[in-house]
Specification:
By secondary structure, this protein is α/β, with parallel strands linked by helices. The protein has helices at about 5, 15-20, 55, 60-65, 90-100, 110-120, 125-140, 145-160, 170-180, 200-220, 270-280, and strands spanning about 30, 40-45, 45-50, 75, 80-85, 165, 185-190, 195-200, 225-230, 235-240, 245-250, 255, 260-265, 305-310, 320-325. It has 2 domains: about 5-160, Potassium Channel Kv1.1, Chain A; about 165-325, 3-Layer(aba) Sandwich (Glutaredoxin). The strands form 3 sheets. The chain has a 7-stranded mixed β-sheet with strand order 6-9-7-10-11-15-14. It has a 5-stranded mixed β-sheet with strand order 1-4-5-2-3. α6 packs antiparallel against α7 and α6 runs antiparallel to α8 (about 145-160). InterPro entries: BACURD1-3 (IPR045068), BTB/POZ_dom (IPR000210), SKP1/BTB/POZ_sf (IPR011333), T1-type_BTB (IPR003131). GO terms for molecular function: ubiquitin-protein transferase activity.
Length: about 350
């Protein structure tokens, strides 16, 4: 492209004028060497930019290879070089080429977008500028550009998985479960609903249940709806729903019967909870039609002592609710070895 042609919007090259009779109006044609031109008109995803070949050739990049003809590009009928990229941050790319540095956006999402554009155009200077900014923010000077993108993506996934509905009434819970098309996992967590003191490990196990709920919420984000109930009657109880009905329940609390006093104990049956979460995935997108889960009533996970099934008034085993109680009826207190323990059934 010559300087004269690029200087006026309506200008055209002599070569393009000769071939215009055989090419329909507005049809794009392959580009050629732009090194002989002084100015370049760029159409980047619909945003128009006017710059010089000297600016685009400052770094060994994709833009330089476009100017010297190493990379073939498309030029429209009006002489605009067409680049099929989003033009939102291309002004920042040009300013970096002009000045050697540029202020980067404070938003992590926009910084990720600029880094991806720099990688596409093979502008190593801008890539290093973005990486250095992330390294300073994260206090991790060893991060590479790929590691930075992975870190940003991971953080965004975590943020997406942090939205957990809190149940405030039974009516709200019923409506949410009935209208949800995804499987539902509910954790009922009400530490204050206890008339006895807790055993020594109960607080730790209660926290482990809450942490597992958060981890599962992140892992199955978008596939399963996780809800939390802090107003229910149970201290710690997991419920699993599919197609609007309860499929299974894992109760983690029990009563310790000792000679002096009764105590409440909270267990952490991690394996059983994870198993039931995987089981309800068959209700994803209505895939459970005609399918039935295997009866797990006689299978005990680590720390699970008894499983009960409640199918009263419902025809068919597939309509039953698996209720798993962790050593619900026979418990012991957690006193030291040698002290008397009384068991009650």
């Amino acid at each position: 492209m010559s300087a004269e042609a690029s200087g006026s919007p309506g200008g055209s090259l002599s070569s393009s004028t000769q071939s215009s009779s055989s090419r329909p109006p507005g049809e794009e044609k392959p580009g050629r060497n732009l090194a002989s031109s002084k100015y370049v008109k760029l159409n980047v995803g619909g945003t128009l930019h006017y710059t010089t070949v000297q600016t685009l050739s400052k770094e060994d990049s994709l833009l330089r290879s476009i100017c010297d003809g190493s990379t073939e590009v498309t030029i429209d009928s009006e002489g605009w070089v067409v680049l099929d990229r989003c033009g939102r941050h291309f002004s920042l790319v040009l300013n970096f080429l002009r000045d050697g540095t540029v202020p980067l956006p404070e938003s992590t999402r926009e910084l990720e977008e600029v880094l991806k554009e720099a990688q596409y155009y093979r502008l190593q200077g801008l890539v290093q500028h973005c990486v250095a900014t992330i390294q300073i923010e994260e206090k991790r000077p060893w991060l590479t550009d790929v590691a930075c993108l992975m870190l940003i993506q991971k953080r965004r996934d975590v943020c997406r998985g942090c939205h957990i509905p809190m149940i405030t009434s039974a009516k709200e819970e019923q409506k949410m479960i009935a209208t949800c098309r995804k499987p539902v996992v509910k954790l009922q967590n009400n530490r204050g609903n206890n008339k006895y003191s807790y055993t020594s490990n109960s607080d730790d196990n209660l926290l482990k249940n809450i942490e597992l709920f958060d981890k599962l919420g992140l892992r199955f984000n978008g596939r399963v709806l996780f809800i939390k109930d802090v107003l229910g009657d149970e201290i710690c109880c997991w419920s699993f729903y599919g197609e609007g009905r309860k499929i299974a329940e894992v109760c983690c609390t029990s009563i310790v019967y000792a000679t002096e006093k009764k105590q409440t104990k909270v267990e952490f049956p991690e394996a059983r909870i994870f198993e039931e979460t995987l089981n309800i995935l068959i209700y994803e997108n209505g895939r459970a039609s005609g399918m039935a889960l295997p009866d797990s009533g006689g299978v005990s996970a680590s720390g699970v002592g008894q499983s009960e099934e409640d199918g009263a008034g419902v025809v068919g085993a597939d309509r039953r609710v698996r209720r798993i109680h962790v050593r619900r009826h026979i418990m012991h207190d957690e006193r030291g070895h040698g002290q008397q323990t009384v068991y009650k059934d």
